[in-house]
Design a protein that fits this description.
This protein is α+β, with helices and mostly antiparallel strands. The chain starts with a helix and ends with a strand. Helices cover 54% and strands 19% of the residues. It is elongated and about 100 Å long. The strands form 2 sheets. Strands 3-2-1-6-5-4 form a 6-stranded antiparallel sheet, with helices on both faces.
C-alpha cells in the first residue's frame, strides 16, 4: 500500500494542476468574449456586494441601456428592460456617471418611477446601480450599468459601494480586452479573405484571361472557317461569364460584417477594387458617421459594391472616388468614376442591381440613383435618413 502512496499523490497533484489550468482557461475565455464578460459580471455581483441578485444592462447605439444578464432573480420581469438616461436608478447612475443607491425603490423620492411595476413584481427593495465606464479613449464612456438588489430594505453601505465599484472597473477592463480580441479576430478573418481574393485573382483570373486571349487570337486567324469561328465566339462568351462569376465571388469574400463600422467596410471594398483592377480608387470620409444598424450598414455597403462592380465591368475608368458624409439629416454616399463607356453601360449596366437596391432602400426610407455625366462618367448615389434617438 505504501508503494502506491507516491503515485496517488502525483495523480492528485496532476488533477489539481489540470483543474487550475481549466479555471485559467475559463477565465481567459471570459475576458475575451463580451457576452461572457457581462454574464459573468452579473453572476459575480451578489457574492461580491452581499446582495441577493445582480443585473447588468448594456448600452446600445441609441444611448439606452437594456438589461440582458441576471443572477439570483426571482422572475424574468427585469430582463430586456429598456432604460433611457435619467429613468429609474440605472438611468440616474448613467446620467450622473456615479453610483446611486436607495433603501426602498418604490418609496424613494430620489429617482423616477418608470419601472415600479417591474420592480414590484420582482419584489426588490434596496437597490444599488453603478455605471461600467471605459476610461480609455479621448474621454470616459459608459458602456454598461451594473445593478445589485435586495428583497428587503437593508442599506447598501459605503463598503458595498466600494466593492461594486471594483466589480465595475474589472468589468470595464474585461470588456476592453474582449473588444480588442474581437478586433484581432476580425482582422485575421479579413486577412484570410484578402489572401483568398488575391489567390483567386492571380491564379484563376489570370488563367481565364490567358484562355480568352488565346481564343480571340485563334478566332482572328481563322477568318475562312465560319463554323469554327461561331464555336470560338460561344467559348469566348462562356469565358466572359466565368470571369464575371469569379469577380462576384471574389467580392462576396468582402461581405460586410454588422459589427464593423461602415467606413471600414467601404475602405476595404475600395482597396480591394484597386488591387484587383489596377484602377485608382480613393475613399473620402467627409464627416463623422454615427453608428448604423445592420440593415442600413449592409445597404450602403451593397451600394458601394454595386457601384464598383459597374465601374469594373463597363466604365473603362481611370479613377474612382467613393465619398461618404452626413447631409440633410441623413448619410450620403457616392461612387463616382471618370469612365467613357456610357452607351455600353446603358445597354448592359446595373439595371437589375439598381432595381434590387432601390427596393431595399425604400424599406428604410432611402434613395438610390445612377446619374450619367456628359463626358461619359457616372455617379451612383444613395441617401439614407438617420434614425432619431
Amino acid at each position: 500500500m505504501r508503494s502506491q502512496e507516491p503515485s496517488n499523490r502525483r495523480a492528485i497533484e496532476h488533477v489539481n494542476a489540470l483543474d487550475e489550468l481549466l479555471r485559467e482557461r475559463d477565465g481567459l475565455l471570459m475576458v475575451m468574449d463580451r457576452i461572457a464578460v457581462l454574464h459573468g459580471t452579473a453572476q459575480l455581483i451578489p457574492a461580491a456586494v452581499g446582495a441577493a441578485s445582480g443585473f447588468v444592462a448594456e448600452l446600445g447605439a441609441d444611448g439606452h441601456a437594456v438589461v440582458r444578464w441576471m443572477s439570483g432573480a426571482r422572475t424574468e420581469r427585469i430582463r430586456d428592460l429598456v432604460v433611457p438616461p435619467g429613468h429609474g436608478i440605472g438611468g440616474k447612475a448613467m446620467a450622473l456617471g456615479a453610483a446611486v443607491r436607495v433603501n426602498d425603490y418604490i418609496a424613494s423620492a430620489s429617482i423616477t418611477h418608470h419601472f415600479d411595476t417591474q420592480v414590484r413584481d420582482e419584489g426588490l427593495g434596496a437597490m444599488l446601480a453603478i455605471p461600467i465606464v471605459d476610461q480609455h479613449g479621448t474621454e470616459p464612456r459608459t458602456v454598461a450599468i451594473a445593478y445589485a438588489g435586495r428583497y428587503d430594505s437593508a442599506t447598501f453601505g459605503d463598503i458595498a459601494v466600494g466593492k461594486m465599484r471594483a466589480v465595475a472597473e474589472q468589468a470595464a477592463t474585461a470588456m476592453r480586452i474582449a473588444a480588442a480580441a474581437e478586433l484581432t479576430k476580425m482582422d485575421a478573418v479579413c486577412a484570410e479573405r484578402q489572401r483568398i481574393q488575391d489567390s483567386l485573382h492571380d491564379s484563376v483570373g489570370a488563367m481565364l484571361f490567358s484562355i480568352s486571349a488565346q481564343v480571340q487570337a485563334l478566332r482572328d486567324a481563322l477568318t475562312d472557317q465560319p463554323a469554327v469561328i461561331d464555336q470560338l465566339r460561344r467559348l469566348e462568351s462562356d469565358i466572359s461569364a466565368a470571369s464575371s462569376a469569379l469577380r462576384e465571388s471574389v467580392l462576396a469574400l468582402a461581405e460586410a460584417t454588422p459589427e464593423r463600422a461602415l467606413p471600414i467596410e467601404i475602405m476595404e471594398h475600395t482597396r480591394s477594387f484597386e488591387r484587383r483592377t489596377g484602377v485608382s480608387a480613393r475613399f473620402v470620409e467627409l464627416s463623422d458617421i454615427p453608428p448604423l444598424d445592420t440593415e442600413r450598414t449592409e445597404l450602403l455597403t451593397a451600394v458601394v459594391r454595386e457601384g464598383l462592380i459597374n465601374v469594373e465591368k463597363h466604365a473603362q475608368a481611370h479613377s474612382v472616388i467613393v465619398s461618404l458624409c452626413c447631409s440633410d439629416g441623413g448619410v450620403r454616399l457616392a461612387v463616382t468614376d471618370d469612365g467613357t463607356a456610357t452607351h455600353e453601360r446603358n445597354r448592359h449596366g446595373t439595371r437589375l442591381g439598381l432595381r434590387s437596391l432601390a427596393l431595399r432602400a425604400a424599406r428604410v426610407g432611402a434613395t438610390v440613383q445612377l446619374l450619367h455625366d456628359e463626358d461619359g462618367g457616372a455617379t451612383l448615389r444613395a441617401w439614407l435618413p438617420l434614425i432619431e434617438s
